[in-house]
Amino acid sequence: MGRRRNVSKLKAFLQRKNIVISAKRYGVDALGAMAQGLFCSLLIGTILNTLGTGLHIDFLTRVVATLGSGEQAIEYTVGGLASAMSGPAMAVAIGYALQAPPLVLFSLVTVGFASNTLGDAGGPLAVLFIAIVAAELGKVVSKETKIDILVTPLVTILVGVPLSYLIAPPIGAAASAVGQVIMWATELQPFLMGVLVSVVVGIALTLPISSAAICAALGLTGLAGGAAVAGCCAQMVGFAVMSFRENRWGGLVSQGIGTSMLQMGNIVKNPRIWIPPTLASVITGPIATCVFRLEMNGAAVSSGMGTCGFVGQIGIYTGWVNDVAAGLKPAITAVDWLGMGLICFILPAVLSWAFGLLLRRWGWIKEGDLRLE
Question: Whose C-alpha in 161, 202, 254, 356 is 20 to 30 A from the C-alpha of 279?
Fold first, then answer.
């Protein structure tokens, strides 16, 4: 009886503190929010730097802040400042998804900076784990004392920063190592890995999880990043085009440059509607890796964005610009643009439409199966 009473008290306490220990809260809500935080910092900063360099916009290329002095000085543009805040942005976004109270939320700025910095290349994954722990423990003590304004920030920060010191480096190293293995394997076996990465990341994009956060956590760039872009575009453009007869122009825009996740409810009702865009990703992935050698050398988060706001394409273009500036690429060619157009737009549209038409004729997809509410 005593044990049951203690369990009941614990459940009541967690409910009162709005602490929900579940795969959805941590693996869907927190992960998705982390991607948004990354988008609003690192990705936006990268886009601003690319626009400034490509269009010769003085305000965007000018140094607006300098940290330190002499040889150790670090200079920041507007975009550089945005990118530098990726850790705090991710942690605060995670805290927001976990419905953390204000004092916990604001304290996560420090936790995010520490975990992202100490996690190095695998920083985003370190931020995800550590920000969740710090936020939940901060919620435990929130408003439990009369000096909440001192206790809550102290607990949140004194949990998050030491934890960052202890586990952010190994988490970051592990995530980076996994990403490096995937990228190495893609270089070694571009056809097989082109199919695998394209399909898996594309499916992750349509599922209620964040493909962008996964790519960012693994640091997925290069040829593997190009395959990831191909898979995401196959899902987004594929669903947009094959459902045009049901959803018309609104559906084309909301799925094509929004998200294919909108079809998740319909997929649950009829999983066969997922076949056409997935088959398209099976084809476009290896074409990206073997034929056009499409690489994502921009921010890793762009690899999992597809055509959402054309972020994937901006990321590829950013990589081209960076490679040209570094002398790794002589120039941006017509073949580069052709490859991007075919992989990101034309082939996903044509292939998904053709596969979808075939499945409609077989009766596997019926009228209204793809209609968005």
Answer: 254
